[in-house]
Design goal:
Layout: H1 16-20, E1 26-30, H2 51-63, E2 68-71, H3 94-100, E3 109-115, H4 123-136, E4 141-146, H5 151-156, H6 164-183, E5 188-190, E6 197-200, E7 212-216, H7 220-229, E8 232-234, H8 243-263, E9 269-272, E10 274-278, H9 282-294, H10 298-309, H11 321-326, E11 330-334, H12 336-348, E12 353-356, H13 361-378, H14 385-392
Helix pairs in contact: 2-13, 4-6, 6-7, 7-8, 8-12, 12-13
Length: about 400
Amino acid sequence: MSDIFPHVPDLPAASPLGQALRQPFLLGLFLPIHNGGWTMSSLARGTDWRFDYNARLTQQAEAWGFDLVFGPAHWLSKGGFGGRTRYRETSLDAFIATSALAAVTHRILLVSTLHILYGPWHPLHLAKFGATLDHIAKGRWGLNVVTGFRKDEWAMFGQSQIEHDKRYEVADEFVDILLRLWSETENFTREAGHWRLKNAFVTPKPQYGRPVIVSATSSAAGIASAVRYADLIFITSPAGANIDRALEAVPAINAAVKQGAARLGRTVRTLINPMIICRDTEKEARAVYQAILDEGDEGAVEGFFQTHATGDSKSWRGHERAERTVGGNIQLIGTPEQIVDQLLKLKAAGCDGIQICFFDYESELQYFGDRILPLLHEAGLRIDINAEEGARV
């Protein structure tokens, strides 16, 4: 494995990711491309899995200056995670859905989650698809590399799950082939390893050398893999969703990720996923939280815990039932001023940005833009890049 990833250069400053990284704190939106979004509750809301709804969210996020949107991926049997809501039974494919958003957006980064080890995927397929999407989106498409931690997902593809650490070795080989196909100017042949290629070639090449690469991981093996090639790494709180407990736990994870990258001469950014419930008063925000719990889908929560217990993921451990019902890896609840204070603390803890989910997406994203975003600018977490460029002219 020593010949894999001798060095993966950062994307250039002129690339869409390079432009986004001028922001002091990255803003991303987790798209609800499955029914139920991130919340296992029957409380009424407008959140919808359909493409048109998610396209509107993406355009709204882009108008507010968000840097990226992100499509998650699941493979679930009939009934999803269960319960009266049949949580996440219906879902769009993240690869197709987020790629299609390139046609209705102009600036925002579009990240697709893909289980690269499932089924008949070959790196040559994805190298060609990714290069094509890179040109369609003008460098805005990104790949979130996941290996699959649930045995039932592997079984859906007629496969036996690869052991945890071994999966990352195989994934490293897959990504290495992608990178070589995106950069090689001659035919590429590989006669050993998990995938074989003979005289393989991909053109056109991605516009900035390669697409954006993302990884979501918390294990030692996952971090060691991700820091070798990823630009953005999604971390999770091992202490549960409570913000105070999370703030105690995430500095060590951020340090481990960034020190691991630095040893390889690389720079990576970390993002974390908060559920944001914000209202004009803390009392109102807490009332929404409680209302979600009061209508919680216990069957879906039980199915979620049972399903995840069969996997070997190191992420999301320590989350209590109520925290999973409401959703988000961490939860930020309160007034706009309280939310901004918590985000400042996350930045101080080493997080370079957030990937937000909401309970009622469209209305709460609008509220975020109206009430929270101006405070983020005041706090120095966001800057007006267009105004900054105008001032230099």
